[in-house]
Amino acid sequence: MRIRYTFGHNEKVFDQACSEVVLGRPREGVAIDIDLSPDLRVSRPHARVWSANGRYWIEDLGSANGTLLDDETIPARTPVALRPGQAIKISATTLVLETSSDDATVVDGLMNDAGDLGAGAVDPDLAIIEVIDATAGAFDADHPIEAGQAQHMVLMYQLPLQFEQPIELEALLQATVEQLVAMIPSASRGALLITDSTTDELLLKAHVPVGEPSVSTTLARRAMARRQGFIWCRANDPSLSQIVNRMEAGMYVPLISKGEVVGVACIDNDDRGMPFTVEDLRVVLAAAHLAALAVTQNRLRAELRHSATLLSRLLTNFSPKTREHLLAQAHHGRLRLGGERSEVVVLISDIRGFTQLTAQMDADEVVDLLNDYFSALVDAIFIYDGTVDKYVGDSILAVFGSPEADPQRHEKAVRAALAMQAAAHDVSLARSHRGLATCKFGIGLHCGDILHGFIGSSDRMELTVIGDAVNWATRYCDAAAPDEILISPALHQHIWSLINAERASIQTKHEGTLLAYRLRGLKRQRMPLPTPGG
């Protein structure tokens, strides 16, 4: 297969003897044949192209930004025919399939009932009796509900009322299948299959009666690929493996919601009684629309729960002001992985003599001590819009000026350090009155350029800071005595007119003697003192 692809002014050619290629950006556990990494809006993975039954196909793998074929967006997770020379657009990358004499031999086009996906999903030779467009309404002025179906359809259209109730998706889908089989005279069995959003596997969610379900994956995939509902009859097509399931006739309708195929409804009979009619097919289509809505709503709720969990875990380290800003970014879809380089202030606090202090304490006592002090110190950091980057044992690493730039970061960091010192003193008084162990902190501050931003994955996104500024702040923290705040000359030059400080020298293991400033307090209140949550 030969594919020419262009990003910006850079053009490359993929030319290998293969029947399938996966397009996108790589990630652990996912093999990518054509790496589009320079284009950061490309998903991991994004799409695939393959050849089968003498034709080429393309499928968007549920990407974040979609795939265009000749400037038209193709549906997610649905095979679409592809001709050589057609332009595939993935974000800012353009790809063109070219014919190649080295293309792999095209595989057999008929997809078997074990479920492997090939061009058989849209095979034109199956014995289909009636076909309707599954993207259209089930009933309209030209296709009204028959009198005999009206009572059943009233029950069917009451199903959406259950969507707001605390009912599991599987129970709702099971009720839908049972209602369908009951209202169609010639139906004896039914099933609803939902696509796995990550693997495209068809998951059996509901079926009647109890026992082994009767489903043809060949017919199911055909309905999904063509977005059509249809009636199949074995008498006209004895070659397929539906004979094994004793299926005489079947109706297959895709579940489509918001343009995405999310599953398929299957109704069949196992005798030679009354045949299915196009009116029966429209009833199944109406039910499929409702089931698709339920599936989409269920997935949306799951995504919202996941997002809420992610945000609650992510935002605990930010001040209320920064938290509100990040929530607004997340709401508008602008909270992304990535970093930037800028100047920030790094503050590190550490308990002096922590090992000796806690050597004779129980684990619960140590945890209570850390919780008492850390909650007070973090509140002081948040008052001045600082961000807690991490906790390391008895240490707190905080940053001012990240994730959002703050022109007052130098002054706010110094004010936060003084507020932390006062807060630790108050906690010590309260604990000593209760006869509990107390401790003292040393604090070091430094400013400098660092790389900061959100790293990880969509499932675990964390703010981190990387750079020498962190190491230098550690040096000043390590040298600080109990109840002492040391700041670096780099920070002092920004706030010298606001503070009372005395010049000092500190000894370090690797850098030798360093100049430092011992912070005594503020000269004047240039900036109004913020209040918590303000």
Descriptive overview:
The model is unreliable at 101-124 and 238-244 (pLDDT under 50). With 534 residues, the protein is an alpha+beta fold. Helix 2 runs antiparallel to helix 4 (278-315). The chain is built from 10 helices and 25 strands. The longest helix is centred in the middle third of the chain and has 38 residues, at 278-315.
Quickly list its features:
534 residues, alpha+beta, six-stranded antiparallel beta sheet, 25 strands
Please outline what is shown here:
The protein is an alpha+beta fold and 534 residues long. It has helices at 147-157, 169-183, 217-226, 278-315, 320-331, 354-358, 363-383, 409-433, 468-479, 489-495, and strands at residues 2-7, 10-15, 20-24, 34-35, 47-52, 55-60, 68-69, 72-73, 80-82, 87-90, 93-98, 128-133, 189-195, 202-208, 228-233, 249-257, 260-269, 338-351, 387-392, 395-400, 441-456, 461-466, 484-487, 499-508, 512-522.
Estimate the strand proportion: 25-35%
Percentage of residues assigned to helices: 25-40%
Major sheet: 8 strands, mixed
The total strand number stands at: 25
Tell me the span between the first and last alpha carbons. 61 Å
- Low-confidence stretches are 101-124, 238-244
> What class, by secondary structure content?
alpha+beta
Mean pLDDT score:
79
Radius of gyration: 32 Å
| Contiguous helical run count | 10
Shape summary? elongated
